[in-house]
């Protein structure tokens, strides 16, 4: 099943539509409120955009500096080219430290590499600790939103899950459900040998990792277990603490409409010798998974300027109708439409750049000033070779005004209601997407004539 | 695997991105604290984040406020960091006299903090704009004491107020040694993961009680 089928199913689900609408509206309005309170949000965005581009341009040097600083602080650094290598590294670390139980903080990269499966294969019992991720894990589903992973589920569905998996009495009270998760997960935190987290920003000059959260599960994961494994994709590094603080200025504001998240942790290596808690061992895994090849592409490189706030998907009209699961992978919305195909994260990934109306709302809110619509157009152009050759004729003809005009004249004469065209093999399926819920417009007269009539 | 992957990855990046020169501007080496803590504004910011604020004029007021809070919350165990200020304020003896058992930093910090109903720590700094607190890990201040008990009591001297988190790099550099863990705390732990309904008290403290120390 591809994006078309998955999104079609979501569009027909009235409950899902209500949830997507509510999520998008709530995140959007909270973001607007905090941005309205800023003196010069545009200057803040320019600053973040400059930091991210500068960091990408200096990536090799920053990664080497980060590596040396982490080692100097007593940590170990591992590089992984693929998801398989990263998973094997975590399995090896778990074996070396005799890890049987692990807790995981919310981390998109660990979802990208399917780390839970790899850990289970190594006989490590791993549990998600972010409430939304925990709910998704119990339900056996992928997260549907970057910030609110279980936004697609109702409290009734969550209560049902807690009854089935945790043996708790059925209770639809949301604070009550949260308390149940707190009780069950606290035990898991205290028993865990290893805490696994992602990285929001890595700071090269000091070998420090910034982690942003609201629940305290990430803090717990780096406080109780004896081993901490942080997994970052290679683009997450910046040069200085100042750079990280500038990103922090916009990250929680863009992600959840918060001036600051409940907890921001700056972690620098394992616990010191005389400290009584925190991990005794710290391992950093720097993952490539196709990114270094894209870095050589001056146009597409910009995708990695993203700070993973998720603001783009909250304003995306396609996400609002299709929801996160329609994208088929861990990343959804405009970011998912960019990352999934170029990193080869889903077999139908090259469909996703076409899941865009080119409205530009994502670019307007992006704190790193990514031009997602432009990048998606570029991906569509590159996807041409992969698409139906008959459809390739349309942009070719459209780029030549005289041919375009004559083609339409011919079409108006031969097939004014476009009924025959919709039966042409190769076009049927494409046009069928539109005609499934719409009537073909018909072109008995040129649009210029219709326009004149409409204007009176 | 690791070393080969490292070389391949860095080589590919260098080839793809071209040569680059790492330029780092040296940031400030000391913190720029506000001359006088604007407590009213700070209180407003703290309360906006579902936390409580009390301005203490002297050490007696601090002891009274914490003991009252402990009695009000039927606290049986309190985890106290061994920071000099906590010792100077004689909080352990004040709480003991009120019948509260005291947990101090030690090898069992995590399990003991998990059994405590109250954790008392000092804050290295506060951020005026957001009502945030900065706490760091150290031998005398375990990470778990500000995280595991359902009530976190934090003491903030008035002389340690920064305008916002953009002042943090200077503060960290002024310490000389980067702490293994530094946390910026803004309100109690929270989530909106079920139907986007905000709930306070997830894996961290359910309540945060900030005491401003006006005389320091």
Which helices and strands occur, and which strands form pairs?
The complex is a heterodimer of chains A (456) and B (216).
Chain A: H1 3-11, H2 14-36, H3 41-57, H4 59-72, E1 76-80, H5 83-96, E2 101-104, H6 108-112, H7 115-121, E3 125-128, H8 131-139, H9 155-166, H10 174-191, E4 194-197, E5 201-203, E6 208-213, H11 217-221, E7 227-233, E8 237-238, H12 241-256, E9 263-267, E10 281-287, H13 291-295, H14 311-315, H15 317-322, H16 333-342, H17 361-365, H18 372-383, H19 389-398, H20 401-414, H21 428-435, H22 447-455
Parallel strand pairs in A: 1-10, 2-3, 2-4, 4-7, 5-8, 7-10
Antiparallel strand pairs in A: 5-6, 6-9
Helix pairs in contact in A: 2-12, 3-12, 9-10, 16-18
Chain B: H1 2-17, H2 39-48, E1 52-56, H3 59-72, E2 77-80, H4 84-88, H5 91-97, E3 101-103, H6 109-115, E4 118-122, E5 125-127, E6 132-136, E7 151-157, E8 161-162, H7 168-174, E9 181-185, E10 190-191, E11 199-200, E12 207-213
Parallel strand pairs in B: 1-12, 2-3, 2-4, 4-7, 5-8, 7-12
Antiparallel strand pairs in B: 5-6, 6-9, 10-11
Q: Numbering strands along the chain, what is their spatial order in the largest sheet of chain A?
A: 1-10-7-4-2-3
Radius of gyration of chain B using CA atoms only: 20 Å
Termini separation of chain A (Å)?
47 Å
Using a beta-carbon cutoff below 8 angstroms, give the protein chain pair with the largest interface and the number of residues from each chain.
A-B, 93 and 73 residues
Radius of gyration of chain A: 24 Å
What is the β-strand count of chain A? Answer: 10
H and E order of chain B:
HHEHEHHEHEEEEEHEEEE
Quick summary of this structure?
The complex is a heterodimer of chains A (456) and B (216). Chain A has 456 residues and is α/β, with parallel strands linked by helices. Helices cover 51% and strands 10% of the residues of chain A.
Description:
The complex is a heterodimer of chains A (456) and B (216). Chain A is built from 22 helices and ten strands. Chain A has helices spanning 3-11, 14-36, 41-57, 59-72, 83-96, 108-112, 115-121, 131-139, 155-166, 174-191, 217-221, 241-256, 291-295, 311-315, 317-322, 333-342, 361-365, 372-383, 389-398, 401-414, 428-435, 447-455, and strands at residues 76-80, 101-104, 125-128, 194-197, 201-203, 208-213, 227-233, 237-238, 263-267, 281-287. Chain B is an alpha/beta fold. Helix content of chain B is 31%, strand content 23%. Chain B has helices at residues 2-17, 39-48, 59-72, 84-88, 91-97, 109-115, 168-174, and strands spanning 52-56, 77-80, 101-103, 118-122, 125-127, 132-136, 151-157, 161-162, 181-185, 190-191, 199-200, 207-213. The model of chain B has no long low-confidence stretch (mean pLDDT 95). Chains A and B meet through helix 2, helix 4, strand 1, helix 5 and helix 8 of A and helix 1, helix 6, helix 7, strand 9 and strand 10 of B. Strand 9 of chain A pairs antiparallel with strand 9 of chain B.
